[in-house]
């Protein structure tokens, strides 16, 4: 660093600056996701690497393809495509054919971001939009949960991963239910220690709750994340399931089970807090988080699906502009009815 | 010259003023019945018959129909042809008729058809009106077919029921569901507009080059 003479240092406004830029915020998210990524590799081996990289490849290809000549370098440098691809990959089942992951990343960026006008203009979280597309398009492949590789070792690839493009898996995949599915359809409760450390079936990133929390704490320390959103989501879920437990402790999940099972932590920490698609006002953040929490529990307990984090966040995403509009703080010196 | 005019009226409906891609008309059947190519083509043929028939009648009687009640008269004429198409399909292809269901009677409400009567057939001589109707209906048929073909190929791995990719094809379930219609139509419109922008840019460049030369 060259030392500058402070007498000759001239600036125009704004004079107070923060070091935070879009590329640095995106890189922080990538770093924060590293524990969860490492956990997914630990449990699912090389397949995790393959699925995650195919999602990232699809997302980055869409970024590159639909950028104009002038903005092409920019959209690749801020690595938002990598974040979207990584987040999407972490929500996918480990045995998913790679071409589906690629397609999901591509659709997530193309329909979730580029078509709205690029970064900062999208209404829905791109990664979740890509996942919703995959869920609606390939419902069977998206709900085939393979167990962790275990003894087979790191380099054992799930046969499903290697399906040819547009073809389905020819081998019958060994499939088993996620803790939420077990809870909902077979009334089997998975022990909490397995949920927290990831010895369960599920999508790549949602298995290890502790790894996700670590990344969340990092993001919070780096001020990349509005703590109100994850806190309000988790508090709502805990309260909701505690209330349900008062009625029938046997039938309904316990609060800690609700928090650590499924994609709730992944969604609450990394997806609901996407600064583009969540409210900017503090009051709005609370409303948003409570809304997501209530919807998650409604879908999980009373809906037809075992897991509802994706739809809960997407639904609240669509309410974000409205929430922002009605929670604008009062302008100083004006009446209460100012916009 | 006369020949050129009627040919022009025919061709504009297929490409430049395509009822779906350029005017965005007739969206209801467009999105509702294009989950397979055969349904799309059947709907396109029925619309073709109704549009050409009613354009012919409306244009022939355009001096007789009172201006104040013209819309009701158009609707009665259109409804007549729709009823004929309805029963013809029921007799010839009962399976397709069953799948199309309520959307055949709803051809009456297709804004493309009423729009052509109001905008063209009631103002121009019969020959031009029929050419215009044939062009518009062909354009509509083409659009329906392209949407239906894309949705059936991706959603079922087949075209007109023939399997294209063998047994192992993984169907894109969303494509034969309603969202698939919106997605496919959006992507096709996107390409159409992109092409149009590129073409306009190209023509402008050519014009600029000519100006600088001259």
Give an overview of the whole structure:
The complex is a heterodimer of chains A (339) and B (214). Chain A has 14 helices and no strands. Chain A has helices at residues 22-44, 46-66, 72-77, 80-90, 98-112, 126-137, 179-186, 192-197, 209-221, 228-247, 255-260, 264-271, 282-302, 309-326. Chain B is mainly α. Chain B has helices at residues 2-14, 27-32, 37-60, 70-92, 94-100, 111-121, 126-156, 173-176, 178-213; strands at 158-159, 162-163. In chain B, strands 1-2 form a two-stranded antiparallel ribbon. Chain B starts with a helix and ends with a helix. The model of chain B has no long low-confidence stretch (mean pLDDT 89). Classes of the chains: A mainly alpha (339), B mainly alpha (214). At the A-B interface, helix 6 of A face helix 8 of B.
Give the N-terminus to C-terminus distance of chain B in angstroms. 30 Å
Instruction: Report the count of strand segments of chain A.
Output: 0
Radius of gyration of chain A (CA) equals 21 Å
The total of helices of chain B stands at 9
Q: Average the pLDDT over all residues of chain A and give the rounded result.
A: 83
The count of β-strands of chain B is 2
- In what range is the share of β-strand residues of chain B? under 5%
Biggest sheet record of chain B? 2 strands, antiparallel
Shape of chain B: flat
- What are the low-pLDDT stretches of chain B, counting only 5+ consecutive residues below 50? none
Helix percentage of chain A: 55-70%
Average of the residue pLDDT scores of chain B: 89
Spatial strand sequence of the major β-sheet of chain B:
1-2
Structural class of chain B: mainly alpha
Portion of residues in beta strands of chain A equals under 5%
The percent range for helix content of chain B is over 70%
């Amino acid at each position: 660093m060259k030392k500058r003479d402070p007498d000759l240092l001239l600036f125009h406004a704004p004079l107070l600056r923060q070091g935070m830029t879009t590329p640095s915020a995106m890189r922080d998210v990538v770093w924060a996701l590293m524990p969860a990524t490492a956990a997914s590799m630990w449990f699912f081996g090389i397949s995790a690497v393959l699925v995650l990289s195919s999602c990232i490849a699809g997302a980055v290809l869409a970024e590159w393809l639909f950028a104009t000549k002038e903005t092409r370098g920019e959209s690749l440098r801020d690595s938002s495509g990598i974040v979207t691809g990584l987040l999407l990959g972490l929500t996918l089942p480990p045995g998913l054919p790679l071409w589906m992951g690629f397609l999901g990343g591509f659709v997530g960026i193309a329909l979730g971001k580029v078509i709205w006008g690029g970064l900062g203009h999208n209404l829905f979280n791109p990664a979740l939009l890509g996942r919703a597309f995959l869920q609606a398009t390939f419902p069977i492949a998206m709900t085939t949960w393979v167990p962790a590789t275990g003894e087979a070792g790191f380099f054992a690839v799930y046969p499903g991963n290697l399906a040819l493009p547009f073809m389905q898996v020819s081998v019958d995949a060994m499939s088993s239910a996620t803790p939420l599915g077990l809870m909902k359809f077979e009334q089997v409760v998975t022990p909490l220690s397995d949920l927290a450390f990831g010895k369960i079936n599920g999508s790549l990133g949602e298995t290890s709750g502790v790894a996700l929390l670590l990344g969340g704490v990092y993001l919070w320390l780096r001020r990349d994340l509005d703590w109100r959103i994850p806190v309000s989501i988790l508090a709502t879920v805990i309260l909701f399931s505690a209330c349900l437990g008062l009625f029938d402790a046997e039938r309904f999940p316990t609060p800690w089970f609700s928090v650590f099972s499924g994609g709730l932590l992944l969604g609450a920490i990394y997806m609901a807090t996407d600064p583009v698609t969540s409210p900017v006002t503090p009051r709005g953040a609370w409303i948003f988080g409570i809304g997501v929490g209530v919807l998650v529990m409604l879908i999980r307990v009373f809906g037809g699906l075992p897991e509802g984090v994706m739809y809960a966040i997407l639904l609240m995403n669509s309410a974000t502009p409205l929430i922002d509009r009605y929670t604008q703080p009062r302008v100083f010196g004006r009446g209460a009815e100012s916009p | 010259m006369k020949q050129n005019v009627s040919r022009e009226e025919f061709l504009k409906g297929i490409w430049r003023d395509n009822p779906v891609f350029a005017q965005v008309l007739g969206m209801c059947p467009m999105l509702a019945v294009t989950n397979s190519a055969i349904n799309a083509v059947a709907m396109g043929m029925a619309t073709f018959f109704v549009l050409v028939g009613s354009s012919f009648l409306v244009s022939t009687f355009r001096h007789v129909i009172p201006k104040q009640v013209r819309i009701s008269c158009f609707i009665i004429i259109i409804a007549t042809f729709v009823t004929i198409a309805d029963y013809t399909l029921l007799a010839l292809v009962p399976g397709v008729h069953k799948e199309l269901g309520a959307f055949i009677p709803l051809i009456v409400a297709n804004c493309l058809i009423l729009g052509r009567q109001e905008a063209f057939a009631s103002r121009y001589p019969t020959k031009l009106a029929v050419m215009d109707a044939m062009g518009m209906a062909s354009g509509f048929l083409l659009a329906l077919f392209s949407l239906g073909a894309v949705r059936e190929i991706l959603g079922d791995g087949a075209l007109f029921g023939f399997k294209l990719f063998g047994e192992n094809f993984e169907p894109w379930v969303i494509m034969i569901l309603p969202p698939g219609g919106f997605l496919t139509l959006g992507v096709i419109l996107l390409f159409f507009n992109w092409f149009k922008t590129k073409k306009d840019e190209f023509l402008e460049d050519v014009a600029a080059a000519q100006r600088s030369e001259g």
